[in-house]
Amino acid sequence: MLRRLLLLFLVVPIVELALLFLIAHFLGWGWTLGITVVSSILGAYLAKKSGQQWWATVRTEWTQEGFPVHRLGEGALLIVAIAFMITPGPLTGIIGLLFMIPRVRAAVARFVVRWVSHRFLERYWT
């Protein structure tokens, strides 16, 4: 697990830098920095809006049917999306933007919850 995290923390910044240099090669550094700053600001705005929508959905479901456990995975992905959208860089920005789309977030959350629960059951209940 530590090796995977180390690899992740080494590969992602290198890919981000390579993409920034590639974009700067075609557009110039001014445009590249401008796009990076604007995408971070847009990410913060979208994060606020998506977080408000998610929380409104959780509150509505909570009053109607009790605590919506199935929304916790979406909330976790929303936090990841917020972190990615605020982090400057094209790769994390695209991933964060995808996770901001409610249908994509719900589908990925279902997949992640199934995967985590399967790993948990496999590790602790066998």
Describe this structure in words.
- This protein is mostly helical and 126 residues long.
- It has a domain at 38-124.
- The chain contains five helices and no strands.
- The protein has helices at residues 2-27, 29-65, 72-86, 90-100, 102-124.
- The relative contact order is 0.11.
- The mean pLDDT is 85.
Largest sheet features: none
Label the overall shape.
flat
Radius of gyration: 18 Å
Percent in strands: under 5%
The termini sit apart by 21 Å
- Structural class determined from secondary elements: mainly alpha
The average pLDDT score comes to 85
What is the string of SSEs from the N terminus onward? HHHHH
Individual helix count: 5
Task: Identify the notable features of this structure and list them briefly.
single chain; 126 residues; mainly alpha
What is the strand and helix layout of this fold?
Blueprint: H1 2-27, H2 29-65, H3 72-86, H4 90-100, H5 102-124
Helix pairs in contact: 1-2, 2-3, 2-4, 3-4, 3-5
